[in-house]
Amino acid sequence: SQALGLEFDENAFNATLVEVKARTLQSAKPSENEVVSNSCLERLKQTIPPTDDTAKYNYCRSVKDGYVFPKVDSVVQAVVRGGEVVSEARVGERVGLVVDRTCLYHAAGGQAADRGLLEGEGWTMDCDTLLSCGEYLVHFGTVRGMGEVRVASGCPVRVWVDTGRRLAHMRSHTATHCLNAELHRMFVATHQTGSSVTEDHLTFDFATYGQNLNKEHVMELERKVQEVIKSRLPVRRTTVSSNELTLMDNVTLLPGETYPSEGIHLIQIESDHFVSKEACCGTHVLNTEDIQDFCVSSVKSQGSGVKSLMAVTGATVQQVRQDGQAVLRDVAALREDISTVASDNNTKVTRSYQLQ
User: Fold this and answer.
1) Which terminus of the chain is more solvent-facing, meaning fewer CB atoms within 10 Å of its CB: N or C?
2) Is the CB of residue 285 less than 8 Å from the CB of residue 235?
3) For residues 197 and 172, is the Cβ–Cβ distance under 8 A?
4) Which of the four CATH numbers 2.40.30.130, 1.20.1250.20, 3.10.120.10, 3.40.47.10 does domain 27-161 have?
C-alpha cells in the first residue's frame, strides 16, 4: 500500500478480520435441526427400509453438454426435527425428510452432496443439506406452501436434483480422474492422498517420490487433461466384485481404503493413448468433452512431498484465466511503481551527496 501511495487502516482491517472469523466459526457449526440422534436412527431402522438412492446414477446425455436428470416419484417415510422423529411438519418449519427413493447424491468419495427440490401436494422444500445416516438419507430444508399444509409419513413427493450443481460436480470429478491418470504417467511413484469435488472447483492432494513437481510439470498436466477432453472419450461405469477388481490391470485404488466384496463401481476412460480405471462411487460425465475445459488455478505444498492442486472446469475456466491475466497486469504495474519509487530515491540520494 505504501508503494502505491494507498491508505491502509490497520485497526479497521483487524476488526473486519475478527468479524469474518466469527462468521466462519458460526457457519461451521451444524444446526440443531440438521442432526439425527441415535434414538432416531434406531427408530428408523425398526420402522422403515433403507433409502434407495440408486436413481442418482440414472441420467443420460441428450446432446453435447446437455444432460437429462429424471425426477423420482417417492413417498415420505419419516419427518425429523431437532434430531428426533416427529409426526408432521408445517409450512415454515425446517425439518429433515426421509423418503423411500431419491435421486440426490450424498457427500462421499470427496464429492459434495447434491441439492434439490422436493415437491408434494401443496408444498415444496428446497433441499440444501443432505445427511447420510447409516442406510438412510435425510433431506433438510424449509417447508414452503400455502395454508394449513401438513407433511407427514405417507405423503407422495417428487424429488428433483439441482442439475447445474450436479453437472458441475460431474465435470470436476471426471477431470480429477483424468488428472490422476496423467500424474501416474508423468511420475514413476505417486499416489493420491485426498481429493475434494465441489460446485466451484476440484482439489487433488498427492505425493510424489524421487521427483519434485515444478511449473513445467503443472503446465504439461493441464495440457494433457485438455487433450483428453478434446479426444471425446466415453466414460463408462461398471459394477464389479473385489475379486474381479484385483484381477484387472491398471486399476487405481486409494491406499488404505477398504472396499466391499460386491457392488464396487468402476469408472473407466480408455483410448489407445490414455487409460483411467478407478474404483469410485461418484457421479461422472458420460463423455470427456462434457468437461469442456480444464485449468489449474493453484498448487500448494502440504509438506513431506505432498502437493495440493486446485483446478476448475467448464465455463469457470474462462473467468479464472481472465482473473489470472488481471493479476499479472496488477503485478507488472506494482513492479513498475516500485521501480519508479526506487529510482526516485536513488536520484535523491545522489543529489544529496552532490550537494555535500
Assistant:
1) C
2) yes
3) yes
4) 2.40.30.130
